[in-house]
Amino acid sequence: MGELHYGPDMPSIELPDRVLAHLQLVIGAKLRRRESFYLRIREVDGSPSIALWIAHSIQLQFRYQHLQPLEIDREWLRDLEEQSFTPAGIIISADDDTE
Predict the structure, then answer these.
(1) Which terminal residue of the chain has fewer beta carbons within 10 Å of its beta carbon, N or C?
(2) Picking from 7-11, 29-33, 55-59, 61-65, which range would have the lowest pLDDT averaged per residue?
(3) How confident is the model over 75-90, as pLDDT tens digits?
(4) Largest alpha-carbon pair distance within the chain?
C-alpha cells in the first residue's frame, strides 16, 4: 500500500500502488492544464469516505511502497480521465485494482 498526501495538515490516505500510479498520471495531466476537480475515495472497511478538491495550489505527494514499475491499464486511465470532467469527479475505492 502506498500513500497519497494532500495538503500539509491532512493525514495520508492509503491506496494500492497500482491505484496511486493511475491517479498520479491523471492528476498530473489535469494539473498541468490547471484543471481542478474532485477526487472521491469511497468507504472501505468502515473507514470514512472522503472528497478532495484537487487544485494546482494544494501540495500533493504520492508515496509508493514498492519501487518497481507498475503496468498501466490504458482503458482504466481513460475512464478515470473521463470521470474527472464530471460534477462528481473521479470516484475510486481504496481497494480498487484492475489486476
Answers:
(1) C
(2) 7-11
(3) 999 999 999 999 999 9
(4) 35
What is the C-alpha to C-alpha distance for residues 62 and 2, in angstroms, rounded to an integer? 7
Percent helix, percent strand, percent coil in the chain, to nearest 5: 25, 25, 45
**How far apart (Å, rounded) are the C-alpha atoms in residues 37 and 34?**
10
Q: Which residue has the cell 497519497?
A: 4
Q: How far apart are CA 7 and CA 20, in angstroms?
A: 16
pLDDT for position 66: 85
Q: Find the angle CA(77)-CA(40)-CA(83) to the nearest 5 degrees.
A: 40
